[in-house]
Amino acid sequence: MFSSSHRAQAQAPAFSSTEFRTALGMFATGVTIVTARTPAGALVGLTANSFNSVSLTPPLVLWSLSQAASSMAAFTQGSHYAINILAADQQALALRFASRSADRFADLEFTEGHNGAPLISGSVASFECFNRSRYAEGDHVIFVGEVEHCSCRAGASPLLYHGGKFYTEHPLYY
């Protein structure tokens, strides 16, 4: 038994960063583009697959962003953002928003959400979030958003990511 003054600590990893990234890639995820407007009105967005639900009441979701990301200031200073879950036919958008492209929003069809964040047309779902809290952990910041509005396209197939490759869904029947 440990006393309250003694805290256990994690052992140093017995694997490389590459091995860790490869192992994490074995978890299949959906693909999102997180969007916002800066206080000056500029559009920002990035591809993220680090997204999941936190709570139904209140409705909370989370995603994470590298502390080195050029868009970090926009997301930490802004009050709202949107999380757009991409459809199976939006792989090109996922790649565009994952690149260092000068204008990721060029020719992009979107509508403006209730608080100004872009909602990408054709997405399977979108979540308009109040920027509720942030937690710095390791080399990333975890953002927790309180969902103020959400929508989805029933029956639309999502874009999936696994092992460094994009996939579309194929339902299993039993």
Structure description:
The structure is a single chain. The chain has helices spanning 17-24, 72-77, 91-98, and strands at residues 29-30, 32-37, 43-48, 51-55, 60-66, 80-85, 110-112, 118-120, 125-137, 140-152, 159-162, 165-168. The chain has three helices and twelve strands. The mean pLDDT is 92. It is globular and about 50 Å long. The chain has a single domain, classed as Pnp Oxidase, Chain A, CATH 2.30.110.10. Strand 9 and strand 10 form a beta hairpin. The strands form three sheets. Strands 3-2-6-9-10-5-4 form a seven-stranded antiparallel sheet. The protein has a three-stranded antiparallel sheet with strand order 1-11-12, with no helix packed on it. Strands 7-8 form a two-stranded antiparallel ribbon. It is mainly β and 174 residues long.
What's the arrangement of secondary structure elements?
Elements lengths: L16 H8 L4 E2 L1 E6 L5 E6 L2 E5 L4 E7 L5 H6 L2 E6 L5 H8 L11 E3 L5 E3 L4 E13 L2 E13 L6 E4 L2 E4 L6
Antiparallel strand pairs: 1-11, 2-3, 2-6, 4-5, 5-10, 6-9, 7-8, 9-10, 11-12
Strand content: 35-45%
Total domains = 1
Distance between the termini: 48 Å
Strands of the biggest beta sheet: in what spatial order? 3-2-6-9-10-5-4
Can you give the mean pLDDT?
92
> Can you count the beta strands?
12
Oligomer state of the chains in this structure: single chain
Q: Structural class, please? A: mainly beta
State the name of the first-level CATH class: Mainly Beta
The low-pLDDT segments are none
The gyration radius over C-alpha positions equals: 18 Å
Total DSSP helices: 3
Percent of residues in helices comes to 10-25%
Taken from the alpha-carbon principal axes, the silhouette is globular
Give the biggest beta sheet: 7 strands, antiparallel
CATH topology: Pnp Oxidase, Chain A
Q: Which CATH architecture?
A: Roll
**What is the ordering of alpha helices and beta strands?**
HEEEEEHEHEEEEEE
The CATH homologous superfamily is called Electron Transport, Fmn-binding Protein, Chain A
Pfam families: Flavin_Reduct (PF01613)
Keywords: Oxidoreductase
Family: Belongs to the non-flavoprotein flavin reductase family.
Protein name: Flavin reductase
